[in-house]
## 1
Amino acid sequence: MENFNFNVSTDIRFGKDRLDELPSVLNQFGKNVLLVYGGGSIKRSGLYEKIKTLLKENGLKMFELGGVDPNPKIESVREGVMLCKYHKIDVILAVGGGSVIDCSKVISGAVFYEGDPWEMVLSRRYEGPTIPLVTILTLATTGTEMNRGAVISDLNAKQKLGIHGTNFLPKVSFLDPSLTFSVSKYQTLAGSADILSHLMEQYFNLTPGTEVQDSIAEGLMKTVIQCMPVALHEPTHYDARANLMWASTLALNGLVGSGRKGAWSCHAMEHELSAFYDITHGIGLAILTPRWLDYILNEQTLPKIERFARNVWQIQEPDSMKAAKMGIQALYDFFEENGVPMTLPEVGIPDDRDFAAMAQQAIDHSSLLTDAFEVLGVKDVVAIYQACLTKSKFI
Amino acid sequence: MENFNFNVSTDIRFGKDRLDELPSVLNQFGKNVLLVYGGGSIKRSGLYEKIKTLLKENGLKMFELGGVDPNPKIESVREGVMLCKYHKIDVILAVGGGSVIDCSKVISGAVFYEGDPWEMVLSRRYEGPTIPLVTILTLATTGTEMNRGAVISDLNAKQKLGIHGTNFLPKVSFLDPSLTFSVSKYQTLAGSADILSHLMEQYFNLTPGTEVQDSIAEGLMKTVIQCMPVALHEPTHYDARANLMWASTLALNGLVGSGRKGAWSCHAMEHELSAFYDITHGIGLAILTPRWLDYILNEQTLPKIERFARNVWQIQEPDSMKAAKMGIQALYDFFEENGVPMTLPEVGIPDDRDFAAMAQQAIDHSSLLTDAFEVLGVKDVVAIYQACLTKSKFI
């Protein structure tokens, strides 16, 4: 195990019927609140009106930045920065999924950044001050509600980049599982695939002696595998939604990733799919991951992939290589049986015309070439993309 | 899953060779440091001299409270409070295991408490201010380095009581696994048994829908079961010590306990063994737990005990009741094979003369009678104590 810091001070308010706590939470930071949200589902659900009324009744002034897209765009950040400066915003209230919260994080720092926000994103780290951020999560996916990362896209430049900020960590996050009852099947699938991918990206790693982290990762993977089908079948199943939500948060708050290092492989490859074609992030990950595992399966990676097969998928097959392949197949089948479109053409990437350019960017924007679980070059990434064009069978 | 708050802001500095960070950590709180430690092992190991030199070189003034006992006594708290007031202490530096840290927590609050510190402990909660606390952990056991609880004994009153304080949470905790290389076999056993017990106390619970918490608990239990024998056999095995240490911290920082409620059964019963006979806490827990599980095994408790047998001990036996019993036996055998004295006479409790009084106190000081995994009365507790007088066989 490597040395690490773990310092995750977000005040989590987990559970239903806790909105009454919001005014006092916001009040500790000031009176001027910037509400950031997405496509308007919070208006349809009535959450927007509830928040507006609550804030008004408690003497808080609410300003708004709506319309933040999935794969949030740098244009939204620029708009948010202007609003923060003009209205002297004291606290940002992000209500939504990962996109809304990520956009809010970058706004919170960019307000104090001298150059254009995209320059800040290009630098990949921000150590300066931020406007305090409070979140109300409406989608179990990215874990951004309890970490220091954010992902922002510039579609003009065909770039989707992660940035970390010491002070991007939300001060308070409200996690109400019942707010995810209305999440569509497709978004539940995509969100769950994203959680699983976060866990696998950290789990498939070469640092030895990370038993705590690995066993937590396996436990959270099993939780998602158990609860996702329940939530798909019965969208208002509170405990299924609650476990998916809490798993999503814990999957990426440092618990699983601390004490080891190494590149994330599928995210590096998927970010280019989203940057070029604006596809749903989690679905892209579900498509890529089994093909990636199959492509990198070799003597060095076998022990961990076999362990994954046995501990997560309860594969009993005695032969190690065969067991590993059965684990990869089980992952693929899990996604397919639950309705994930498992080829690129199904999500609007018709052929391989952009694979070389995307692979090059995947390499340029990551350390796939140097410190991945299994290092990958452009040729390898193209081969993995290629395997995603048609249905796969691994055994 | 029940609603919960999770807000654990302790800044964890995990790993070896990080003592150089100590002066700047302390400096943010002030110049006057009260060093709290135990029986002098930190003097023998050289850690005491290193800290003294570091603090002096960095202009910090060090005062001392040494000799804090295992099962820390209220007398040490009173002494610490006097020292804090007299020397205008700005920050407490606790260097040791759970006893030293727990004692320091209670001191940190009792300084601001108007009455005698034991009155504060008797009230079981402290919501007032505290002196900031920094810890250097030298024993993987209680998890106190990242939570808000403390346990203090008054041997005159034969009482050992837990107290929670909102501000008892350490500000910074240094977790250096190599500081546990010198921990004796017996203390490694006791510490590991304590970690396992914390996990089991939270895991054996009736709240439904806590898949995240249960799967994390199972993962941490498996980690301890895997790493404890390695650390016993090779005390300087870094990764074994690192995983035991990180597991001990995560076992009791809210990850496993959040979202459910209910009494801790074995701790309630063990606290009286320690209060009456001053035995080692973890060993008392190891002795009690299998007998408790066997005593409460019934139709209602079967599903969880069976799950424990299958997921933690890989029991394949198809019959549920038999599998559950095999799990209890596996737990007992694990302790016994690794050298835990598994009967009360072996640890200096010769017979049942105090069982009735201890059982009565266990009931008085807990909610065993109302909200345990399986509710227990005085008669039940006596029966469980009784089963601990001789070796056991569960199948």
## 2
Amino acid sequence: MGQANYQQQVLGILGGGQLGRMLIQSAINYNLTVHIMDPDPEAPCKNLCRTFVQGDLKDYDTVYAFGKTCDVISIEIEHVNTAALYQLEQEGKKVFPQPRVIELIQDKRTQKQFYQDQGIPTAPFVLTENKADVARHLDFLPAVHKLGKEGYDGRGVQTIPDAGAIGRAFDAPGLLEKFVDFDKELAVIVARNEHGAVKTFPSVECAFHPVHNLVEFLFSPAEISPETDQKAQALALKVIEKLDMVGLLAVELFVTKSGEILVNEIAPRPHNSGHHTIEANFTSQFEQHLRAVMGMPLGDTGIRSGAAMVNLLGEAGYTGEALVEGLDEAIQEKGVYLHLYGKKLTKPFRKMGHVTVLEADTGRLREKAQRIKELIKIKA
Amino acid sequence: MGQANYQQQVLGILGGGQLGRMLIQSAINYNLTVHIMDPDPEAPCKNLCRTFVQGDLKDYDTVYAFGKTCDVISIEIEHVNTAALYQLEQEGKKVFPQPRVIELIQDKRTQKQFYQDQGIPTAPFVLTENKADVARHLDFLPAVHKLGKEGYDGRGVQTIPDAGAIGRAFDAPGLLEKFVDFDKELAVIVARNEHGAVKTFPSVECAFHPVHNLVEFLFSPAEISPETDQKAQALALKVIEKLDMVGLLAVELFVTKSGEILVNEIAPRPHNSGHHTIEANFTSQFEQHLRAVMGMPLGDTGIRSGAAMVNLLGEAGYTGEALVEGLDEAIQEKGVYLHLYGKKLTKPFRKMGHVTVLEADTGRLREKAQRIKELIKIKA
């Protein structure tokens, strides 16, 4: 066995939000040198890394110059300048996920076409160019209209149950997707390193906020049959293999009422649906991301404990300097783990943190998660 | 339940080594603002905190000026200027552990006298002023000679089995302690906050390096009877209560062959014997330290999994820039957690990192810990 020299490689991460922050917490264990770039001078990663560069993630020169200071370049948000990443890749830098994959995923239209081309099951869809175009597909309703580019954290998605709601459609290139009458929404996180090693995490179950399209609760493991779990994991594996991608990929899935599994969306980075892995699995998604992009052996993804994850969203009606309510009461409970993201300002539905709750019994877990959600409020 | 404002308090920590580093990893979850001071401009905490101040921990003015920028002041090493801390305390700063406790523990002589005065069982001892003084107590041999002040990480302790070994004694104020023919060495970590809440971690078992007086392996839980565990926890509780201390206290204990439990030494901060708690207990010692000094409710200390901790010491014969050997093979195993401390230079027996190994079965755990120890080598 040779000597590992991960400590001599500079890892650059585009994006310095909460995902970058949790990547840094994990990177400290391996003594990795992490450089971060984010447009926000007060980004959650500021003060936690060797080098923090304030810069525009979409600007060619800025991304290129940042990448030149690194050996391995990765992302924690996919809205980045891929032209610069292609150039860096060509100059011999390791860019994981590959620019090709980031570019494909940046546009939900090419993402959908990729599923279709590769025989990956997904909901029927049509591409739309503008609002008028959406109105031409009334036969497709009820449907979900998705903006092709720039959607994030629940933005860029609108449900269009009937013709009367066409006004909600985006007046820009997007896609109209047939509404899936699903039984459950699952997510599977899968990792692959440059040596071709691949590992999936067990399926988790996501409960979305009815209005804001943000994960409200997550439960691990999902309450599904072992067969469904295996089918979901196999599908995630197929996606990352077909993408020929190196890094971590979150695959969001629908289980339809007839038991079919469809790919909804994918994200080539750590994801909200994997936050519980920090405490609940043998390897966290953040460590797995680092292992994958640095070419390390992948870690065991097994479950250590049943878990729920509760997103801490900025309370409606409060904008300003964040104050955490109910914290003392919550953290007195066994197996309650707070993660605040270091964002100074709260606004309605902004992701301010999350809480992981460990509990083996499924019924008690759901009850505990609900109680924590009612207890902790982010106000101003 | 009111609004917790821990985020508005600046926590200053004297010392920026590995203990400070792991405190920071934990503080990120609570979005605490941490200021660190350490004499080494390349200390392990450098680059990981809002404010890193290079400064002499023993200098009055330096410590005082640093403390003035903080609301709560704590330590990760006890060799600090207590006069400055007394002054800061008097000016209304929260200093936890209290200067009085740090001062008492800084000198192993006053530490021992404290046990005696408070009826806390400890090995018989005599105070010695110099080497000649040690030679006057041959009737006390076999014994251990301990330097009163400045001992750390195995330095400042010498075994003196017989008169022929008197030459090893320190020629400075110290104490000669009767050699304890112990069955096991245990450690119990206990925390207490300013509201008087107290919690102990279950007893762990330490295996020391035969020559260098450094923990080589640690096993949790200790293989002892429930009664012995309870006696050990009760004794740790008694020590922190008698000290009237706020913070985290590691209590090292001997279990004698006749089943008696004696206090060996104490440290008023996170301790090598609690590193496994990061993965193996519901609350880590680092989070518990933060909770205690910030006045938060204490966390549950229960065991999530049986665990071993292996210290990664600089390999004998290597001095220079550290290289980690055997890492890839080690981290392929399930439940193996690497923690490198970010020290650039290795030297023989320097604490460079640790590995926590999770495993329920006691036999397999010891075997796995031994294998990891043989696999990972810190060379140059």
